[in-house]
Amino acid sequence: MLTQDQRAAYARDGFVAGIPVFEPDHVGQIRQAIEALEKAHTHENTHDLHQYFRVNGQLVIPLLADLARTPAILDAVESILGHNLLVWSVELFIKEPGTQSVVSWHQDITYWGMGETDEELTAWVALSDVSVDAGCMRFIPGSHKGHIVDHADTFDADNLLSRGQQIADVDESKAVHGALRPGQMSFHHGRCFHASGPNMSDDRRIGLAIRYVTPEVRQAEMGRDYAMLVRGKDDQQGWINVAGPSGLFTPQDLALYEEVRAHQSTTLAAGATKNVGMYQKEA
Fold first, then answer.
1. pTM (predicted TM-score)
2. pLDDT tens, N- to C-terminus, the chain (283 residues)
3. Domain limits of the chain?
4. What is the DSSP string of 93-105?
5. What does the alpha-carbon distance between residue 264 and residue 211 come to, in Å, rounded to a whole number?
6. What CATH superfamily classification does 4-268 receive?
């Protein structure tokens, strides 16, 4: 569970970093499993593997679903959101060494269709050394206490966000770095302004983002959305509950993946002036 100081920091700042989760040996095993997937599965069911890494991988890749169920992560999330927890999405953010890939200043829930709820958070787990040089996340403390603000679509090829969306006029002098050692994680609120820079280190920067919600959250734009119950119960019945994958890229799971992808892409693309992919291909 989080300490009282950590819970207070999250409530005050909208983020908290440096939470220990995995021992170094375990992190190494997870990374090896991810990189083995990259070698063995460049494409599945017409999609590039990074499509699954960046969008709802928990539906078709057992490793990602199992990581989202990690007891140490769930214990810490429960400290913020309570006992009843669902996973809306699991994503891998990978920046190759010496590349210019960035994530612009944004608020996560802008295009999720969930409104301005406080009943969600992202657990971001470092699976490599996520230093300042490697392009760790930066946060604007207290920005989660405001509303969702306007974002401009840039469709920048170096931006890992689906629309290259960004908030204008962020005062970067207020930004706080959230550097993480392998096996540590951070939490951030969906309205907290955050961004990350290019990876100027000599190693890959690998981060696992798990989006947790409570049963009280509603998908207002498209009706009920899909989520995986990972702790407690969903007595609200506001979500379409999914069990997680039955194996690696099974036909049934791939079919469900396409169903969820079609449902969510409509919300993601709302208001865009150009076609919006579910992710940027560049890792």
1. 0.91
2. 899 999 999 999 999 999 999 999 999 999 999 999 999 998 888 899 999 999 999 999 999 999 999 999 999 999 999 999 999 999 999 999 998 877 889 999 987 889 899 999 999 999 999 999 999 999 999 999 999 988 876 665 665 665 557 888 899 899 999 999 999 999 999 999 999 989 999 999 999 999 999 999 987 666 789 999 999 999 998 999 999 999 999 999 999 999 999 888 776 655 545 554 544 443 3
3. 4-268
4. EEE-TTB--BEEE
5. 14
6. q2cbj1_9rhob like domain (2.60.120.620)
